Amino acid sequence: MTDRMRIKLDRTLCDGFGVCAKHAPEYFSLDDWGYAVLVGDGDIPEQDRDAVQRALLDCPVHAILEIGERRPDETPIRPLREPDLENLKIEDNEAEWGFSR
């Protein structure tokens, strides 16, 4: 395990519950409307890891991410398969994939 963790805050996801500021006030503050703001650069030293990890886990909208992890709802991006334009069959305005006007 490394001695530091890095986090980021996705403010577009924040709904202003304030749980992060309650658990780790040194790293999260609330703006005038009650939405979270990351304090600092997201570098979390070992001694503060537990508090920040608790804020990350308790965020109801998962707006706090540990850098390097993926969201569970993100599907891997598949490479784009380009059509073979050299051998594309066109008959009566219909391509080989069955699309027609």
From TrEMBL:
Transmembrane segments: none annotated. InterPro entries: Fe-S_cluster_ET. Keywords: 3Fe-4S, Electron transport, Iron, Iron-sulfur, Metal-binding, Transport. GO terms for molecular function: 3 iron, 4 sulfur cluster binding; metal ion binding. Coiled coil: none annotated. Its cofactor is [3Fe-4S] cluster. It comes from the Bacteria. This is Ferredoxin. The lineage of its organism: Bacteria, Bacillati, Actinomycetota, Actinomycetes, Mycobacteriales.
